[in-house]
Amino acid sequence: MYAVVANGSHQYKVAEGLKFSVEKLDGEIGSKIVLDKVLLVGGEGELKLGNPFLASATVEAEILEQGKDKKILILKKKRRKGYRKKQGHRQTFTLLKVNKILF
Q1: Which of the 8 DSSP states describes residue 74?
Q2: Environment class of 27 (CB within 10 Å of its CB; exposed 0-12, middle 13-18, buried 19+)
Q3: Among 13, 25, 51, 70, whose CB has the most other CB atoms within 10 angstroms?
């Protein structure tokens, strides 16, 4: 069984036991989280689609890690002008493990 959940501006296809990374969510490591914006549930029998979300479907997940990704370097340059600007950015993330898909 799998589901498609929305979190922020991203959509993720998840299944039970799957680990996936999302943008930073509040919570301690080991705590449970319920993702209630389920767009689609499928895998066993008929495919269920929401309009836009399924009211009765939820995904229960556990927080495994809170961290930062690798640094992304941004370099801006204009030729023959002597202009260079270098910036860096580390995006925060939360690693989740899906425990149950309830429908």
Answers
A1: E
A2: middle
A3: 25
